[in-house]
Amino acid sequence: MTGNRQASWAFADAFVAEDDALIRARARSHASGLRPVSPGTGAALRLLAAAGNAKYVVEIGTGTGVSGIHLMRGMRHDGVLTTVDTEPDRQQLAREAYREAGFAANRSRFIPGAALDVLPRLTDGAYDLVFCDSDRLEYLDYLDESLRLLRPGGVVCFEGVFAQGRALDAAHQDSESLAVRDLMRAVRDSPRVSPVLLPTDDGLLCAVRRP
Prior knowledge:
The protein is built from eight helices and seven strands. The chain has helices at 3-13, 20-31, 39-51, 66-74, 88-100, 115-118, 139-149, 175-189, and strands at 56-60, 80-85, 108-112, 127-132, 150-159, 193-198, 204-209. Helix 4 links the parallel strand 1 and strand 2 (80-85). The protein starts with a helix and ends with a strand.
């Protein structure tokens, strides 16, 4: 990769500035040993939520609230974010982050638990966007669940599909790289979706569910 391209990507990723609420949520994420979405990825999520006039969104992987703030800032003012995570302590940090960002408590619904236990309990065709940022070994399963949950025209996004470059190099045969490659092929080849792979940070794979 040329230096010019690296500089261009870095500029694009930082193009939309983050406010104090996001900066604090990001600091909590790093302190917890988590890797939050980058500012550019967050801005892309906000744009997708706004473009789809999203009212109901599912997030798999709450973290400390960075991605949730971006999503809710793009959603309708009466929208509700349903966010799923195995760690209730992280969800408590996200609650604090949402409150600091000015969101009322009824704008978010926190469900603790494993995604593949929780998602089957959610309503078919009721959601406008699903954002996946959790166990990459389960991404293919998340895809199946997401297509069930989404309305026609709804969007599913998968964070981190470059796997820090490993998924793009066939020499890497670790289980996560293989799982992400399987996901990318499945999304690219599925007649049920229209896909795009965005080179934000560690790769954001998105697809619109076709009618």
